[in-house]
């Protein structure tokens, strides 16, 4: 997250690219470039050794014109308000693009969870909820998991909020364990949704997915499931995966489940038997049909864009491609499935979780997957058709549709 200002600048620049098409006035554009609400919190936490450490946390509620805001919480040592602000903007456009009745938000805590014990992470999670308690709630802002947070963290956070309210409020957070009101299908929803989009892109480009070479950067929640499902659902060949320590490559293809077992026992994907260790940078430049960045932002930039050889770039991470890189990729014929389209499966199923919590019901997994597939397909074709009709890139098409909906809601509400 070192180049956080780049991500924010990218997001603002993308807004400008669709501003003329939407006939945005300078006032409207200025409004859309600013978050509606931001909160900084200091979080004193009792450490296991008896000391007290104060962590810094943030929550940004970017725009609530379409409904209560929604967005994940990151625990990361290099987290900054700038990154969180950019990610909250992306959430706003993502919810709008997928026609969810939600605005966009994002939160984060500056910490390294790898250096914290289980109990310290619990105390930090609870402290964060106490810090942001006054601005969240099932009708106001509903957090979810993101980088280095998971269903257990969501369970502690829901429990802390419920204690403050004096009653169970399962609907305050999504991505919970299923026994606590979590939704079936949430754990792999982001990856699965992205794969539905990849399937449609491959169909449009005439790429046969069976045997197609896939490289995945990041082997966490999204990256692991993307690799696993690409192999399972479409018989793709997963030639490379990576984590923060580095990447592995196998021309014959990797078994993601087995690599996951190796990572669990050794702590990283590196030195997987039969595969070659390569760098994260080398992974991005492999000769593949499908490249899936599923880690952090700005990894595809003007320094490496010329060397990216993929046919389809499926942005499962948020903001993996800079604006300069995008121009180079488009002129090289790369089909980009932009982040707000590609990784929308997570927030779509999170929205289903909210709906189930509100009605105190639990849908079967089959129903969730059917609804997810329908929504991803609808969103993919709305963007694809717009881009063909208006001769724009896929990202500009996605932004124009999404921002247009937010603007329409703001106008109808009399805000602008
Ligand atoms: P995660 O914490 O489960 O996994 C992150 C992975 O990235 C880990 O494997 C980690 O080792 C790897 N990583 C960290 N730094 C790296 C580096 N410098 N180079 C290469 N790999 C590195 O996080 P996640 O939930 O899988 O999220 C991944 C991306 O997807 C993020 O951009 C996130 O914002 C986005 N996203 C996640 C969801 C979701 O539902 N979890 C939804 C939408 C978007």
Blueprint of the fold:
Elements: H1 4-19, H2 26-32, E1 37-46, E2 52-63, E3 69-76, H3 81-97, E4 103-110, H4 118-132, E5 141-145, H5 151-165, H6 189-205, E6 213-217, H7 221-234, E7 237-243, E8 246-249, H8 256-266, E9 276-278, H9 280-284, E10 290-293, E11 312-314, H10 323-331, E12 335-337, H11 339-342, H12 345-359, H13 365-390, H14 394-412
Parallel strand pairs: 3-4, 3-5, 6-7, 6-10, 10-11, 11-12
Antiparallel strand pairs: 1-2, 2-4, 7-8, 8-9
Helix pairs in contact: 1-3, 1-14, 3-14, 4-5, 6-7, 6-12, 6-13, 12-13, 13-14
Bound molecules: nicotinamide-adenine-dinucleotide.
Residues 145-148, 190, 217-223, 242-244, 280, 294-296, 316-318, 343, 346 line the site of nicotinamide-adenine-dinucleotide.
Which ions and ligands are bound to the chains? nicotinamide-adenine-dinucleotide
- The share of residues in extended strands comes to 15-25%
What would the average pLDDT be, to the nearest integer? 96
Q: Strands of the biggest beta sheet: in what spatial order?
A: 9-8-7-6-10-11-12
| Structural class assignment | alpha/beta
**Beta strands, count:** 12
How many structural domains?
2
CATH homology superfamily name of the largest domain: NAD(P)-binding Rossmann-like Domain
Share of residues in helices = 40-55%
């Amino acid at each position: 997250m070192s180049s956080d200002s780049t991500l924010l600048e990218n997001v603002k620049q993308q807004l400008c690219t669709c501003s003329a098409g939407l006939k945005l006035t300078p006032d409207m554009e200025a409004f859309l470039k600013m978050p509606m609400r931001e909160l900084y919190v200091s979080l004193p936490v009792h450490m296991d050794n008896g000391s007290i450490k104060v962590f810094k946390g943030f929550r940004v509620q970017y725009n609530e014109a379409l409904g209560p805001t929604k967005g994940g919480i990151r625990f990361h040592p290099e987290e900054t308000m700038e990154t969180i602000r950019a990610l909250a903007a992306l959430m706003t456009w993502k919810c709008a693009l997928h026609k969810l009745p939600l605005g966009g938000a994002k939160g984060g805590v500056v910490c390294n969870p790898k250096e914290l014990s289980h109990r310290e992470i619990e105390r930090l999670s609870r402290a964060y909820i106490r810090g942001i308690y006054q601005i969240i709630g099932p009708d106001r802002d509903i957090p979810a998991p993101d980088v280095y947070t998971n269903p257990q963290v969501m369970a502690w956070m829901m429990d802390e909020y419920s204690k403050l309210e004096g009653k169970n409020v399962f609907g305050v957070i999504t991505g919970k364990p299923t026994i606590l009101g979590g939704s079936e299908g949430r754990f792999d929803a982001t990856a699965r949704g992205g794969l539905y989009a990849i399937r449609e892109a491959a169909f449009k480009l005439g790429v046969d997915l069976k045997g197609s070479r896939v490289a995945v950067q990041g082997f966490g929640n999204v990256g692991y499931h993307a690799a696993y499902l690409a192999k399972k659902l479409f018989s793709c060949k997963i030639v490379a995966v990576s984590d923060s320590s580095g990447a592995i490559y196998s021309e014959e293809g990797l078994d993601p489940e087995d690599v996951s077992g190796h990572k669990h026992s050794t702590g990283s994907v590196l030195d997987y038997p039969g595969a070659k260790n390569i760098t994260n940078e080398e992974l991005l430049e492999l000769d593949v049909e499908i490249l899936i960045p599923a880690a952090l932002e700005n990894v595809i930039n003007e320094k490496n864009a010329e060397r990216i050889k993929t046919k389809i770039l499926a942005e499962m991470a948020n903001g993996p491609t800079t604006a300069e890189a995008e121009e180079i990729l488009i002129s090289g014929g790369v089909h980009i499935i932009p982040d707000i389209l590609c990784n929308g499966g997570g927030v779509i199923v999170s929205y289903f979780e909210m709906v189930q919590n509100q009605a105190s019901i639990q849908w079967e997994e089959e129903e969730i997957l059917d609804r997810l597939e329908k929504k991803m397909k609808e969103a993919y074709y709305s963007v694809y058709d717009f881009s063909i009709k208006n001769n724009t890139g896929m990202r500009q098409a996605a932004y124009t549709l999404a921002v247009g909906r937010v603007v329409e809601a703001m106008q109808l509400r009399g805000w602008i």
